[in-house]
């Protein structure tokens, strides 16, 4: 199934073709690079390598004007003009290897791409499409556009549609929350206590694996604001917005605890801005917002 927007289609085709190489390149790059990303986290060799590969491939697509990633300080200008609303193309924001600390223990990881019809940093409702690749036992991709959400299997650079019109199951089954319990706020802890009585824990240390559980079985994923870091861990441009967009297009909700992630005005001076992230079935996000609102 091809996407009607030709620029989005090019990005998705390029991404699909790059993942075989990314998978192969992980071998031998499981060690630390002795460097930090702009968020102050230790980079793996694979983080830097995957970022360079995707920057090279995605920035050379016709109609892509900016490339930004979790692993580089500044936004790369690709300066490509076309018929988008900004008049100079779409911007891509990438988390090249989400959950790369899982490389050491050989567990699931992902790649996230948001395609914005706006200059970065941008609001999530400026996304025209978002996709993630899940490096699990098999490699899959979930792609959301304004039209639909689809799941593909990726092999040999090709994508094969396996699930059309992906929607969150109505009856939630799973939950997963990041951070350490003592570092949660009282309000979030009381919400989490209720949720863990009702649903099954699924937390794998790579958001993409956990999000795929929520899209498959229904439920809620959250990385909350912490007492020691109220802004949480995940980044708005590279993680919160694209995942919020995918889950909302699949019929669920996203939130920073108080409002949809897609309506959050970004800090114009900080492409690496962090945010609490919550996504899942409507009712579970409504409950969360109600609990956090009581604390205000
Ligand atoms: P990364 O993109 O640098 O790998 O960090 C994001 C990851 C998410 O995939 C995951 O949900 C979270 O960090 C896990 O953090 P923690 O180890 O604190 O549970
Ligand atoms: Mg990440």
From TrEMBL:
Reactions that this protein is recorded to catalyse: beta-D-fructose 1,6-bisphosphate + H2O = beta-D-fructose 6-phosphate + phosphate
Keywords: Carbohydrate metabolism, Cytoplasm, Hydrolase, Magnesium, Metal-binding
Annotated EC: 3.1.3.11
Keyword Magnesium: yes
Cofactor: Mg(2+)
Cofactor: record remark: Binds 2 magnesium ions per subunit.
Keyword Ubl conjugation belongs to the record: no
Source taxon at top rank: Archaea
Binding residues for Mg(2+) 2: 95, 98, 239
Domain annotation Fructose-1-6-bisphosphatase class 1 C-terminal: ranges: 169-290
One GO cellular component term: cytoplasm
GO MF terms, alphabetically ordered: fructose 1,6-bisphosphate 1-phosphatase activity; magnesium ion binding
Binding positions (substrate): 98-101, 203, 233
Record: residues binding Mg(2+) 1: 70, 95, 97
Catalytic class of the enzyme: hydrolase
InterPro entries in the cross-refs: FBPase_C_dom (IPR044015), FBPase_class-1 (IPR000146), FBPase_N (IPR033391), FBPtase (IPR028343)
Cell compartments where the protein resides: Cytoplasm
UniProt domain Fructose-1-6-bisphosphatase class I N-terminal: residue ranges: 22-154
Family assignment from sequence similarity: Belongs to the FBPase class 1 family.
NCBIfam families, sorted: PRK09293.3-3 (NF006786)
Complexes and interactors: Homotetramer.
Protein name: Fructose-1,6-bisphosphatase class 1
Species the sequence originates in: Natrialba taiwanensis DSM 12281
Gene: fbp
